[in-house]
């Protein structure tokens, strides 16, 4: 059974600082997704990481995937208040083509303090 | 762009009542999913439909049934609601295969706005 663990679960950081959220998973997978969820809202796709060594960047967020270590990171650079949200990683547990059944981590609630 | 539409947005039920949550997508996706989200937890897969005409159990299927009515619509039914089913329910869809047969898709799942369900 695939297990996905995120840490930290809660993160409070000051504006302008850098930090990293970690996502570890227990079985072989080469596909990982990052989502953002604002309170009371739906999930918004941030990044799709499709292979070992994949790196994606959007604004102040950068995500990477190391399939050998079964680890993905979401790095926040010079945080701003608008980045306050809960961030989820999700791992594709399917080994066949096109199987997009995901297992989600428990989420990291990020609060940016002015 | 409508994307994934869920109805209703809020519902309160009494224990033992039944109800159906509706989900429709207009992106011509072949795969659809139902998740539940409980406080402090990630999303857990209830059922999914990899393509029209097929459905499969996810991690927490007990107490639920699903119907893939057509390519656009995927409904979730609670036959006899229990307080443990109080949750936020999300429907999602994705295009499961790439443009070439056998090619894996690089698309994420797209989520609806959720149904907040309380069972008393």
Query: What is the average of the pLDDT values of chain B?
Result: 91
Strand content of chain A: over 45%
The largest sheet of chain A, given as strand count, sense and whether it forms a barrel, is:
6 strands, mixed
**Largest interchain contact:** A-B, 24 and 32 residues
Order of helices and strands of chain B: EEEEEEEEEEE
Return Rg of chain B in Å: 14 Å
Mean pLDDT of chain A: 91
SS-based class of chain B: mainly beta
Describe this structure in words.
- The complex is a heterodimer of chains A (114) and B (120).
- Chain A is mostly beta strands.
- Chain A has strands spanning 4-7, 10-14, 19-25, 32-37, 43-49, 55-58, 61-66, 71-76, 85-92, 102-104, 108-113.
- In chain A, strands 2, 4, 5, 9, 10 and 11 form a 6-stranded mixed β-sheet that branches. Chain A has a 5-stranded antiparallel β-sheet with strand order 1-3-8-7-6, with no helix packed on it.
- Chain B is an all-beta fold and 120 residues long.
- In chain B, strands 2, 4, 5, 6, 9, 10 and 11 form a 7-stranded mixed β-sheet that branches. A 4-stranded antiparallel β-sheet of chain B has the order 1-3-8-7, with no helix packed on it.
- In chain B, a hairpin with a 5-residue loop joins strand 4 and strand 5 (43-49).
- The chains are: A mainly beta (114), B mainly beta (120).
- The A-B interface holds A 4, 31, 33, 35, 41-45, 48, 50, 88, 90, 97-107 and B 31, 33, 35, 40-45, 48, 50, 58-59, 90, 92, 94, 96-98, 102-114.
Helix-strand layout with pairing:
The complex is a heterodimer of chains A (114) and B (120).
Chain A: E1 4-7, E2 10-14, E3 19-25, E4 32-37, E5 43-49, E6 55-58, E7 61-66, E8 71-76, E9 85-92, E10 102-104, E11 108-113
Chain B: E1 4-7, E2 10-13, E3 19-25, E4 31-37, E5 43-49, E6 56-57, E7 64-68, E8 74-78, E9 87-94, E10 110-111, E11 115-119
């Amino acid at each position: 059974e695939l297990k996905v663990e995120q840490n930290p679960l809660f993160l409070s950081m000051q504006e302008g600082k850098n930090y990293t959220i970690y996502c570890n998973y227990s079985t072989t997978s080469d596909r990982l997704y990052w989502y953002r969820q604002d309170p009371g809202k739906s999930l918004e796709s941030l990044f799709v990481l499709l292979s070992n060594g994949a790196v994606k960047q959007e604004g102040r967020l950068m995500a990477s995937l190391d399939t050998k270590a079964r680890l993905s990171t979401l790095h926040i650079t010079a945080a701003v208040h608008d980045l306050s949200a809960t961030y989820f990683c999700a791992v594709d547990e399917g080994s066949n083509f096109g199987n997009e059944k995901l297992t989600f981590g428990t989420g990291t609630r990020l609060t940016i303090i002015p | 762009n409508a994307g994934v539409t869920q109805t209703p947005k809020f519902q309160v039920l009494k224990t033992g009542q039944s109800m159906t949550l509706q989900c429709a997508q207009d992106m011509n996706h072949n795969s659809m999913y139902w998740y539940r989200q409980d406080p402090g937890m990630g999303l857990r897969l209830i059922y999914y439909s990899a393509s029209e005409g097929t459905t499969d159990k996810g991690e927490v299927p007990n107490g639920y049934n699903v119907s893939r009515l057509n390519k656009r619509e995927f409904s979730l039914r609670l036959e006899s609601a229990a307080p443990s089913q109080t949750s936020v329910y999300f429907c999602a869809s994705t295009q499961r295969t790439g443009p070439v047969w056998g090619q894996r898709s690089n698309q994420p799942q797209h989520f609806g706005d959720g149904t907040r369900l309380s069972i008393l």
